[in-house]
Amino acid sequence: MKKLLLFYTKLSKQLDYFCNTLRNNYELICEDITKYKKFRLNSYDRIVVWIENFNNVLLDYLDNIHPVIILPKNLENANLDLLDEKLIYYAFGWNGLKLLKDERKDLYLLALLKLLINKSKGAILSKDFTKLKKYWLINRNRVKFSDNFFTHSIVEAIEEIYRKDALEQVIKIFSSFISTDIQAKRLSKLVASNFYPNLYERKLFFDISLLRVKEGGTGIHRVVKAQLNCFLENFTPKFRAEPSYITVENGKVTVKYAREFIKNYLKIQTNTLSDVPLLIREGDIYYLPDYYPLLTLEAYKSGFFDYLKFKKTKTVFLVYDLIPIKFPEYFPKRFNKIHEIWLKIVLETSDLIFTISNTVKEDILEFSKKKNLPFPEEKIKVLPLGAETEKAPNVTKVSEKEKEIIQKVSKEPFFLMVSTLEPRKGHFQVLKAFEILWKKGINVNLVIVGKEGWKVRKLVKHIKKHRFLGKHLFWFGYVSDELLKELYKRALALIAASEDEGFGLPIVEAFRNNTPVIARDIKVFREIAGDNAFFFENTKNPEVIANAIKTWLELYRKGLHPKPANLKQYKYTWENHCKLLIKYLTEI
């Protein structure tokens, strides 16, 4: 049987609930300290935990407890074999696990020392503490994080009260249990292998509910993955990013850590971290960059967002666009109603809203005013998207098969379209325009990258039966990041023909790959591209689009076409996006 002894003075209702919850879920034993030794801690309830055969699931329930750490006289010679990846995770998060390679033992030691170095996180009983601290200061640069990481902490004890004199009494009591170095070493191993000192930092719960079950190569998924990489590749001392997800199990909404997904995403081999329910505290942030409206609605009805407010946790949403509300005819039946309900939830529950353009921000403010759901304009932050296909850990080089694809589509100069096939994206109009060009003997290719969306059966059927499919017309439902980069680099120009967008990420990606852009003349494309794109009239007439492409070709041959944005001055990069994202989340 797993054993847990909770030593405490006064058993408050809060502690009673805490103990019973653990007992009911994990078959644990809770006993009163008076059976072992009577003492008072200046009238404050304090908990000290002594654990055997500890189940790692409990770490998420107990990491708010101030431990007393008992070390042997020489920690450097202690047996560290009992330590596992959990220690690295609790010390350095996913960043630490990524660094865990050949220097396994040293990194463990650094992690343990890091957890012990700030006395506000625990008391250390060791005559060699000064030596250990010096060892840490010399070696900590091997883990390249900001100094703020070591000093920053948000400590939340059960009673939210921490008194130095009380802790000193606990130290004194625990010292009486140890008479030999052997006992100290035994307790040190026990603590090191099963329990890691409190290192509570403000957490950013990064929701990947949809990404976890359904990955895609374009649109929102690319943004979510880019932001996820931002936190996995860049350390911020202000909070600790924890990917999470909302799920419905047996009719009940549950929110969990997305550890299994991240282990696979980062290709980290460990069996010690699993998907367990979140432990949310005051000051934390729950950020929803993914778009999963029906699941958001289930979470709302379950009271999840009310719970976040009760816990004084900040809620942040990312709104990509209001297109389903503005153009309901382009979406499945009732989708506009679903999107409207989702947006109302966003306005009602958010402490901060991100948008991807000023155009979307204006749309949100107009909607909130119309629906009598006022939201402070200053709490809507524009977060322009970046470009470059994201530097995902699992990206590979272009395969031999992909090289054949590149060679085939490049037999003639080609234009590129990157977006899911939807009515508003303008694929059908552009294809008809190219048919006009082909009929006139203009030998250019059209390459479409994007999966099949809704209400495009007619378009898909037309493409699949097209006489130029595989010759002048190419459609790829999904391509790797590396292949997409190559297509951008080799394309004559990107054609952005959407009738409405929240941002226009392909335009930015084209600029980052020094690819010219031909775009429909709509407000958001003007905002993003400025004078660096060739604009055609906002019309559904293929003749007009064909003439615009022909005009662009003439300008291109003379070198007079609008050039891509200067990369050195171009602000739409994932690096800038990441900096803004962290800045706004830090300030909330």
Written description of the protein model:
It comes from Aquifex aeolicus (strain VF5). This is Mannosyltransferase A. Pfam families: Glycos_transf_1. GO terms for molecular function: glycosyltransferase activity. This protein folds into three domains: 3-194, no CATH class; 203-386 and 576-587, 3-Layer(aba) Sandwich (Rossmann fold); 400-558, 3-Layer(aba) Sandwich (Rossmann fold). With 588 residues, it is α/β, with parallel strands linked by helices. Helices cover 43% and strands 13% of the residues. It has 24 helices and 17 strands. The radius of gyration is 29 Å and the shape is globular. Residues 1-84, 101-109, 113-133, 140-175, 184-199 and 389-395 have low confidence and may be disordered. A seven-stranded mixed β-sheet has the order 7-6-5-8-9-10-11, sandwiched between helices. Strands 14-13-12-15-16-17 form a six-stranded parallel β-sheet, with helices on both faces. The chain has a two-stranded antiparallel ribbon with strand order 1-2. Helix 10 (220-233) crosses helix 24 (574-587) and helix 18 (427-439) packs across helix 23.
